[in-house]
Amino acid sequence: MIDSQQLFPYFFPTTVVFVDDNASFLKGLALQLPEDLAYQMFEQAEAALDHINRPGPPPLYQRCFSHYRAAGVDTGSEQLIHLDISLIEREVSNADRFREIAVVVVDYDMPGIDGLTFCTRIKNPHIKKVLFTGVADEKVAVEAFNAGVIDRFIIKNDPNAVSRVVDSLESLQHAYFRGISEMLRRSLLLNAPAFLSDGAFEEFFNRLRREHRFVEYYLVARPGGFLLLTDDGVLYRLVVLDEQEVAAQAEFAAAHNAPRKVIEDLQKRRRLGYFYESIEEYYDAAEYEWDEYLFPCQRLAGSEVWFWSLIESPPVDIDFDDETSHYQAYLERLDSEA
Predict the structure, then answer these.
(1) Which of 298-321 are b and which e, b meaning 16 or more Cβ less than 10 Å from the residue's Cβ?
(2) What are the pLDDT digits (tens) for 148-205?
């Protein structure tokens, strides 16, 4: 089930870490987990902490921002923050993106370090924490939950314990993305595509994801919309335009002497443009193959009227390896590493 409470600037599957000194429990747990879940298991708490807290490249939500000083401004003056949206879609070329840890599930009763102490030593404040606890320790777990040390707790000897964990993973993963994308969302408020905050569009978008089994998506611009991927790496481009943007495309076509049929299709909203190559790049504009850049247009009524088209295997200026950079390839690498 897809979370319908938030449309993020980007989303992709992440990795869950399970920590328990009981090897038999972890082995039994692995047999009950979904095949499409990326996870790692640790019997040694310190080894798990080293893995979770390992230094690495900045996450995407940090890499999208950079400081720069405007020309002619003194060094001591206030710096500006630049948001580079193009870096969002380029994350699909990062085959290690799925290694990002969003949720940690840890046993409370472990030798050397208990689960709560373990959780307090996790450096990334965005990681969601689930505590396995015994009945006798439930009061401690409640206090930790109320204090914000953990996000969930589950009685370990509950016969439905594993299913409760699995059921909570999706919502916790979405809560993780809600946290890390907050700064992006706030920055986008200054010039955000209006469909990001349109409830009708969000409902449509989640339905589209279910229908095509998209497991990840990335906000893109020029034209606005999303880059989406299936778990085996098939790329799709969702183009989303408002009334003014489609009208501008019709005016653009007319100004460049496009065929009458092209102009009429744009004017009547039968097709919309995904102009991934500029007409200015052509030596003779008359050679521009307009039909290659036009796609069936569909209408969505929301807070305003949206015109959209879903394009399979679109041309993209991204170094994407369709054999190694998708989620299924990552799951296979995890299996080989186990």
Answers:
(1) eebebeeebbbbbbeeeebeeebe
(2) 999 999 999 899 999 999 999 999 999 999 999 887 877 776 677 889 889 999 999 9
- How far is 151 from 144, CA to CA, in rounded Å? 9
- Could you give the angle at which helices 260-267 and 243-255 cross, rounded to 10 degrees? 170
Measured distance CA(129)–CA(165) in Å, rounded: 11
Percent helix, strand and coil across the chain, each to the nearest 5 = 40, 20, 35
**63: helix, strand or coil:** helix
Give residue 218's Cα distance to chain centre: 6
Take residue 185 and report the two structure tokens written for it: 């969302």
**Which residues 6+ apart lie within 8 Å of 17 measured at CB?**
39, 40, 41, 42, 48, 51, 52, 101, 103, 104, 105
Give dist(CA 53, CA 193) in Å, integer. 35
* Alpha helix ranges (H) inside the chain: 23-32, 45-52, 60-63, 86-89, 115-120, 138-146, 161-180, 182-188, 199-212, 243-255, 260-267, 327-337
- Number of helices followed by number of strands (H, E) in the chain: 12, 15
CB-count exposure of residue 95 (10 Å: 0-12, 13-18, 19+): middle
Which candidate, 157, 204, 163, places its Cα nearest to that of 306? 204
pTM of the model: 0.90
Torsion of CA 247, 251, 257, 258, to 10 degrees: -10
Per-residue DSSP letter, 232:
T
Integer Cα distance of 181 and 46 in angstroms: 29
* CA atoms of 87 and 121, how far apart (whole Å): 31
Residue 108's H or E segment, with its range, is none
234 residue type, one letter: V
> Rounded to the nearest 5 degrees, what angle is found at the Cα of 63, between the Cα atoms of 58 and 69?
125
Cβ-proximal residues to 188 (8 Å cutoff; 6+ apart), any chain? 9, 83, 196
